[in-house]
Amino acid sequence: MTSVAELIDTLPSLRETVENHGLMAKKALGQNFLLDRNITDKIIRLSLNAQNKNDFNNEFVYEIGPGPGGLTRSILSNNPQKLTVVEMDERCIAIMNEIKGKVGEKLEIINGDALKENFGTKDKSPRHIISNLPYNISVPLLVGWLKDIQSFSSLTLMFQKEVADRITAPTKCKDYGRISILSQLLCKIDRLLDINPNCFVPAPKIWSSVLLFRPLDNILTEKQINNIEKLTSLAFGQRRKMIRQSLKSIPDIENKCSQIGILMTSRAEEITPQQYLALADLI
Ligand code: SAM
């Protein structure tokens, strides 16, 4: 029997596909395409290796913004139970339908907005999200998935390198901020690779980075997450100020900070994710 990987190999090349469909990138949709299968295969291989997996056998994968389908081909060639793609651009939906013509039910196509989709209750687990994210909505998408992270086994996501640097930044670093705290409290994060702008069509001005997120065992409640967001919004809203000033609207804040050993002269970036969590439990 012909394997899915073999069926994928009978498709026209990615560059031919883009030409056949006249797929000029649209800036408004954050489109920078990867047309080199070596790179998309490498992203999937590194992600699987880091998870000690040979392939996605019996697992469900969701891809956001498949575009011309480079990552889509690489995912399908690694044997998922089913791949669901969500794409806003109808030109790319036509390309997805070509792939579906080869692989049938293995590929589910949703023509819609990923910000409105809830993958955490779709299909059964294990579930994986993979995406070369549209850069203009990468952080809102990530925050939505982080809040539901126990529904997923992994997120393999490409960001602009400066966003990846913010997500992984340690305490006291200039890049450390709200997204670092939420990400690091909820996930183990591995940087899989950095990608040169010339690998994309069109080439963006800056490098990109692929991060792998896997949920940590400590589950945070909705209340804890809301309180962390409230605290970090106040603290980083006045990043240069001491927390004596930036957190003064929180009742009895001096006493609460002293219970967990946070000095009132600290600035937002000097407080660790664990300290924000401890404080969130007191408010
Ligand atoms: N995965 C492709 C690749 O690597 O070549 C394309 C990546 S491109 C950076 C981002 C893709 O997300 C585009 O195909 C774009 O049309 C799509 N997109 C943008 N906003 C979206 C949204 N809100 N929901 C779903 N897809 C979206």
Number of domains: 2
Return the CATH topology of the largest domain. Answer: Rossmann fold
Number of strands: 9
Ligands in the model, by name, code or SMILES, are: S-adenosylmethionine
Strand content: 15-25%
Q: How many DSSP H or I helices?
A: 12
- Termini separation comes to 60 Å
Helix/sheet category: alpha/beta
| Assigned CATH superfamily of the largest domain | Vaccinia Virus protein VP39
* Average pLDDT level: 96
Morphology:
elongated
Major sheet: arrangement of strands: 4-3-2-5-6-9-7
Uncertain residue ranges? none
Order of helices and strands: HHEHEHEHEEHEHHEEEHHHH
3D structure, described in words:
The longest helix has 16 residues, at 222-237. The protein is elongated. The protein has 2 domains: 4-215, Rossmann fold; 222-280, rRNA adenine dimethylase, C-terminal domain (Helicase, Ruva Protein, domain 3), CATH 1.10.8.100. Helix 3 (37-50) packs across helix 4 and helix 8 (178-186) crosses helix 12 (273-280). Helix 6 (138-146) links the parallel strand 5 and strand 6. It has helices at 4-8, 14-20, 37-50, 70-76, 90-103, 138-146, 161-168, 178-186, 222-237, 243-246, 253-259, 273-280; strands at 33-34, 60-64, 82-87, 107-111, 127-132, 154-160, 187-195, 200-201, 208-215. It is α/β, with parallel strands linked by helices and 283 residues long. The strands form 2 sheets. A 7-stranded mixed sheet has the order 4-3-2-5-6-9-7, sandwiched between helices. A two-stranded antiparallel sheet has the order 1-8.
